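Supplementary notes for students who missed Thursday's class. We covered one full example, reproduced here. Read the sequence, then the structure, then the short commentary at the end.
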Amino acid sequence: MDLWQLEIFVTVIDKKSFSKASETVNLSQPTVSSHIKELEAHFNCRLLDRLGKVTEPTKAGQLLYRYAKKLLSLRDHTESAMLDFLGNSKGKLLIGGSTIPTGYILPRIIGGFTKKYPEVSVSISAGDTSQIIQHVISGEIETGIVGARVNDPRIQQEILVHDQMKLIVPQDHKWANKQSINCSSLLKERLIAREGGSGTWQSVLKSLDSAGFHSSDLKTCITMGSSIAVIQGIINHIGISILSTIAVEDELKKGRLKALSVKGIDLDRHFFLTVSQKRTLSPICKKFIDFAKARI
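Structure (token representation):
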């Protein structure tokens, strides 16, 4: 067993396919299969099952996968630490973000970061807040930026960006010329909701409940999985919604959408830089975090 075989093994599981894995690691499919057979011979058990077109790990394969991910992560950290010690910032950076950070915050940071450290390869994982938190905990990514503070002892969070959410309506809506509306009026309108794991939507519901209103009274007509989908839903008169002003900045400038304050509820929130409480950050990730704080 060696680290290269473990990397091939992990790639097969991640891609759920021998053929896709072979393309990723730039080896022929028979060579990939040979490496997997050698691993299975080493452990004297079956590690992968081919279920039609999909390849899944056996119970033993699941166990090896977890340890292989840790070993490969330690390898990457070791290489980064040695290069950093020798004055070379080079290697892979695996980060993630929920919808708003991935679409609007991370690109602004990464542009400058990769210019400063051109030999660093950055990979961004996108998901809702709960998914990114789980990726950080599992070690799939080193750090993430999310839209909600999570009470979990396995992670550590700090404020990175201040954000202001507002009620967003189409340009021809009856409230389009108003600066603000009462929360009681909001409860009567058809709202587009975000999925349960959305940090934005969690913040909206929490703000309503904290102000003495009942978030359960909201008339949510439809649930959408991204801010982009919600924006299009508002433009096409499906409903209105509360969104980050960062996400609708361009549409507000064009005049296609209007932003209103909601009296009685605090819609200010933050985006949080999130890391694992127990895992050691690579030198590259530490440089990225320092750069992000300075840039923001």
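Commentary. The longest helix spans residues 59-85. The chain has a mean pLDDT of 89. If anything here is unclear, bring it to office hours.
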